[in-house]
Each structure stands twice: as C-alpha cells, then as structure tokens.
Amino acid sequence: MLLGSGIAILLLLVTSSAQPSPKPCRCSALQPSGLQVNCSSMSLMEVPPLSPDTTELYLQDNQLSTVPSGHFDRLQDLRRVTLSGNPFHCDCGIQFLRTWLRRNWAVVSGGVPTCASPSGVAHTAITALSDAYFSSCAQQSCAGWVYDTMVGVMLCGLIGLLLWGLRLAKNSTFTLYIDQRHAGLELDSLRSLKPKHRRLQRTLSEERENSASLTRTNDPERPLINMEILPQILDVLHKKHNIKIKTI
Predict the structure, then answer these.
(1) H or E element in which residue 28 lies
(2) What angle separates helix 195-210 from helix 230-239, to the nearest 10 degrees?
(3) Starting at the edge strand that comes first in sequence, how are the strands of the sheet with 80-82 ordered?
(4) Which residue ranges traverse the bilayer (predicted)?
(5) CB under 8 Å to 105, separation ≥6 — which residues?
(6) Model confidence over 195-248: pLDDT tens digits?
C-alpha cells in the first residue's frame, strides 16, 4: 500500500511538470495491487510518463495526436484504458497504436479511438486502418536506411583515403642532389628560425661578401652549394619540412 502511494505521488509530480495542464493527473492505488491513473479532460498534448504498475489508464477527451512507439509496452498489468475523444493524426506515427490496440483490444473501453486527420481517414477507427494504408511508411523507412548506409560507407571511404594519404606522405622521400641546381627550392624556405642557425647564417654571409673568390667564380668544378652550410640545410629540411635525407 505504501509503495503504491509513493508511486502515485511521484507520478503526480512528474506529470504536473511535464505537461502544460491546469492540474495533474489523478492517481490512486488499487486493491489488492496496481495503480489507477486518471488523466481525462486535462488538455494533454502528449501521453505523460507512466508507472509500470499502472492497471487502469484514462486518457479520454484530451488533445493527443499520437502515442509514441513503445509507450504502452511496459504496462504489462494494464486491465483498462480509454483513449476516445482525442484528435489522433493517422500518419506513419500512429502505426504503433494501431498494432497495440489490435493486440490488446480486450482492455480498451469507453469507445473506439478514431482518426481526426488527415481528411481521407477522418472518423475512421484506428484499428480499421489496413496494412496497405501503411505501405508507404515501410518504403520511407527502407529509403532512410539505404541513405544512412550510403552516407556511412562514403564517410568510411573518405576517412580511409585520408589515412592512406597521411601514410603515403609520411613514407615519401625527396632526393636532393647537391651538384645540381633546384629552381623549385626557395632560399627563404631553408632558413632556420633557431638563433644559433641565424647567427651562423649571418657569419657565413659576411664571409662570402669579404671573399671575392666565393662571390664570383666561373669554375665548373666548384660545388653549386656551399658545403659549409650543408648540415644546416639538411637539418632544416628534416625538422621544418619533414624531408628525410637519404644517402645514395
């Protein structure tokens, strides 16, 4: 008895906060067990949360347009339910209620719930809707599943391509021949930002300016790259540009 009263009080609080109704549903414990939930004429637009111990449920004369899928499945002890007087919208979303009513017709009382819209099935009993009426719903569900699958496959393929590209870039090598000119390499891109490298570069520049033999020469045997700064160039290529140097 105390357990049933506690559930009733909890349901009152939940229902009053979940629905914009002037007053909460009326709940009372039944003997020897069970719970009666009276939500009739409350202007409810959604079915309130229900206790699994509910045995009698009165939802007539509200503004319900549908019942969420699976909402009544937990009510295993339900012995009576009234749903008449609600403007049910009979689209694909009413399919759960139609199936549930057909399976649990013995507990339905107070009149047969009917469709209020669309106009083609207005005033038609929900249980009278045929399987053909919901044939388009199955097609929409299948189309949605196919679309989701295609999008998932495309995303997986894109991620795979990105990973493959990163792996290819990581394993790629760049061969730099120091005895040939490379017009594609900019001098600024080989400059290191480290202070010691910048100081070394300034020192080498001053030495080149002071030495006429280093600034101008037509000797074909002379290397096209100053061998003194080669370690710096290799270090910058490896650390800044992620270019691996391979000796051949």
Answers:
(1) strand 26-29
(2) 150
(3) 26-29, 35-38, 54-58, 80-82
(4) 145-166
(5) 127
(6) 666 677 677 677 666 664 544 555 555 555 566 677 777 777 777 766 766 655
Interatomic CA distance for residues 210 and 107, integer angstroms: 106
Contact 214, 208 (CB under 8 A): yes
Helix (H, G, I), strand (E, B) or coil at 19: coil
Cα 19 to Cα 11, 38, 51, 53, 62, distances in angstroms: 12, 14, 16, 21, 12
The two structure tokens encoding residue 169: 């870039």
Give the global pTM: 0.50
Q: Distance (Å, rounded) from C-alpha 137 to C-alpha 112?
A: 24
Q: Which residues pair with 211 in a beta bridge?
A: none
* CA distances in angstroms from 129 to 116, 123, 133, listed in the order given: 13, 11, 6
Which residue carries 């074909």 as its tokens? 220
Tracing tokens 């694909």 back to the chain, one arrives at: 92
Q: Nearest to residue 66, comparing CAs of 116, 134, 119, 3?
A: 116
pLDDT band at 194; cut points 50, 70, 90: low
78 touches 57 (CB < 8 A): yes
Instruction: Write down all domains in the chain, each with its CATH number in brackets.
Output: 2-135 (3.80.10.10), 171-209+218-239 (no CATH)
